[in-house]
Amino acid sequence: MIKLLRIDDRLLHGQVAFLWKEYLKLDTILICNDDAADDSFTKQILKFAKPKEVQLIIVSLGDAAEKISSLALEPGISIIIVGSLFDAEKIIDMATLTCPVNIGGLRERPNSISLCEYVAVTNEDIQIIKNLLKHKCKISIRRAPKDNEIQINDNMPLLS
Questions:
Q1: Distance of alpha carbon 8 from alpha carbon 102, whole angstroms
Q2: What is Dmax (Cα atoms) for the chain?
Q3: How is the chain split into domains, by residue range?
Q4: Burial letters 140-150, b for 16+ CB under 10 A, else e
Q5: DSSP state of 18
Q6: Element (H, E) at 69
Q7: Virtual CA dihedral for 112, 158, 124, 81, nearest 10 degrees?
Q8: Fewer beta carbons within 10 Å, N or C terminal of the chain?
Q9: Looking at the annotation, which residues are catalytic?
């Protein structure tokens, strides 16, 4: 069962690995990222960041739909992590995901605006959020499970 699609440009780090693992009772972390899937050094670094008792799977975006389909049928609890809203939209479209979307960390980039201290979005990101909302995705911003959740909806001034 897939519990959450998390967007975090750092992919896997202690906050995700341990806090979200405990909160969601995770068995599997699935990272869908082309760069990570193609780089053995990055894979090794990500493996060091995961808790011992949690399985880590790293796949390219092209291989994600098949892996997501199989995880959805397994009894364990999984989280999917992508590095951008663009990748999240691709994953949702390819795998027809219906789980909640959590934006946990998007650092400032050229032409981005801050939604909070740890999430900055570009105009392209805002368009993707609008598209995801049209597809009835539940989207929130929350860095860690203990933090207050900011729900994203059509009524937000940024999305008008």
A1: 9
A2: 44
A3: 2-159
A4: bbbbeeeeeee
A5: I
A6: helix 61-73
A7: 80
A8: C
A9: 13
Helices 123-134, 85-95: inter-axial angle, 10-degree rounding: 30
Place of tokens 């405990």: 22
In CATH, what number does 2-159 get? 3.40.35.10
CA distance 54 to 95: 23
Q: Give the Cα separation of 105 and 102 in Å (integer).
A: 9
pLDDT for 158 beyond 80: no
User: How far is the C-alpha of 42 from the C-alpha of 35, rounded, in Å?
Assistant: 8
Residue at 110: amino acid letter: P
Question: 120: which residues sit within 8 A by CB, 6+ positions away?
Answer: 106, 107, 108, 109, 112, 113, 114
DSSP character for 11? -
